[in-house]
Design goal:
It is a single chain. The chain is α/β, with parallel strands linked by helices and about 375 residues long. It has one domain: Aldolase class I (TIM Barrel, Alpha-Beta Barrel). Helices cover about 35% and strands about 15% of the residues. It has 13 helices and 13 strands. It has helices at about 1-10, 15-30, 35-45, 75-80, 125-135, 155-165, 190-210, 225-235, 275-285, 300-310, 320-325, 330-345, 360-365; strands spanning about 50-55, 55-60, 65, 85-90, 105-110, 115, 140-145, 175, 215-220, 240-245, 265-270, 290-295, 315-320. The strands form three sheets. Strands 3-4-7-8-9-10-12-13 form an eight-stranded parallel β-barrel, surrounded by five helices. The chain has a three-stranded antiparallel sheet with strand order 5-6-11, with no helix packed on it. Helix 10 crosses helix 12 (about 330-345). The longest helix is centred in the middle third of the chain and has 17 residues, at about 190-210. It is globular. The two termini are about 30 Å apart. The model is unreliable at about 365-385 (pLDDT under 50).
């Protein structure tokens, strides 16, 4: 049904308008007790074999929502109700900002891709904190934070600290976004010494407010392999809780259409798949069991999630496939993932993390590819059923 709706209506609407329409429709569907009951019945329970531990929390499934879909932390509960195991909101900045001028989002349907140059439009850290403060016991919510566009890169540490002070106590984990191509100067923070300084500043703020929220960094796909390795080594050195890989790419060479109505921006969706897997494998080789990897980029199916888990990802995020395939997509992926776990003879998908790099005897002993249950827990850590 959704594919017909997309084909005959949504694809004819501006992408941002279609996003607002989908958001409003889902929120309306869950605004009443009978509406929430209908959605629960439609989606059904998630198989227990998909439960995954990370950051001291129990994720009902490793499949989550990437940052960018819920920019203002306003509909994470609705997204989780569709079957996602967690939602990463943002990117959120210290100050409210409108982002770049429109048009700033384009579909490339033949490639199942999106191109965006949004520029972090969001209501700011104070407003987002108000939304997060009202959330119920679940779902698990990560908060992706970035540099305000008006702040020079030399003052990025203070800017991130301001956001952290408001949002860290309300987040299950924090992600420092240093890799979006749509904020001038942001990717300069990939430089090792600047990244080291940024992490130090954020950790100083966390200590000052007495918060132990797990801290991750999000890196881009356009880094060369040596830089990926260097950042991975830094993550181990600084004992970061995890790495999110990858962000969108500025490389449009994989797109078969040239009709994007603006210059610049980042490509997401299927064209990112190969590089996202390459970066995941490189990171896992360096960090070994030292931190959680959240893999994102080009995830289109249960097979893609499965590939990321076997390659060493603890958690996997999606965005573009959900835009194209609609509200039934996470349920289908979860169902197919559960079948794959059972066919592999495992009792839990956790047993299969990093299985590509292990011997045949490791599954029987329950050895995992990442110490997902041993990461430092967040303050007031909890288990979500």
């Amino acid at each position: 049904m959704y594919r017909l709706l997309f084909r005959f209506l949504l694809r004819r609407i501006d992408p941002e308008c279609a996003h607002a329409l989908a958001t409003g429709t889902l929120r309306l569907a869950r605004a009443t007790p009978w509406g929430r009951a209908f959605v629960r019945r439609l989606i059904g329970p998630t198989a227990s074999c998909l439960q995954t531990r990370a950051f001291g929390l129990s994720f009902p499934t490793p499949l989550g929502v990437a940052a960018g879909l819920d920019k203002g932390a306003t509909w994470f509960a609705d997204l989780a109700a569709l079957g996602f195991g967690f939602v990463e909101v943002g990117t959120i900045t210290a100050r409210p900002q409108d982002g770049n001028p429109q048009p700033r989002v384009a579909r490339v349907e033949t490639d199942r891709a999106l191109v965006n140059r949004m520029g972090f439009p969001n209501p700011g850290a104070t407003a987002a904190a108000g939304e997060l403060a009202r959330r119920a016991r679940d779902p698990i919510v990560g908060v992706n934070i970035g540099k305000s566009a008006v702040v020079p890169v030399e003052r990025a540490g203070d800017d991130y600290r301001e956001t952290v002070s408001r949002l860290a106590p309300l987040a299950d984990y924090l992600v420092l976004n240093v890799s979006s191509p749509n904020t001038p100067g942001l990717r300069d923070l990939h430089a090792i010494e600047r990244l080291r300084a940024l992490v130090s500043a954020v950790r100083a703020e966390l200590a000052e407010i007495g918060c132990s929220t797990p801290l991750l960094i999000k890196i881009g796909p356009d880094l060369d392999d040596d830089r990926v390795d260097a950042i991975s080594s830094l993550a181990v050195e600084l004992e970061l809780d995890g790495v999110v890989a990858v962000n969108t790419t500025v490389d449009r060479s994989a797109l078969t259409e040239a009709s994007v109505p603006f210059a610049g921006g980042g490509v997401s969706g299927a064209p990112l798949r190969a590089r996202a897997v390459e970066v995941l494998r490189r990171i896992r080789l360096v960090v070994k069991d030292g931190c959680v990897i959240i893999s994102v980029g080009g995830v289109q199916s249960a097979g893609d999630v499965w590939e990321r888990i076997l390659a060493g990802a603890t958690l996997v995020q999606a965005y573009t496939a959900f835009v194209y395939d609609g509200p039934g997509w996470p349920k289908r992926v979860n169902r197919e993932l559960a079948h794959k776990v059972q066919a592999a003879g495992a009792s839990s998908i956790e047993q299969l993390i990093g299985a590509d790099g292990r011997g045949p005897g490791d599954l029987a002993t329950g050895r995992r590819g990442a110490q997902t249950g041993s990461a430092r827990p967040a303050a007031g850590s909890r288990v979500v059923p």
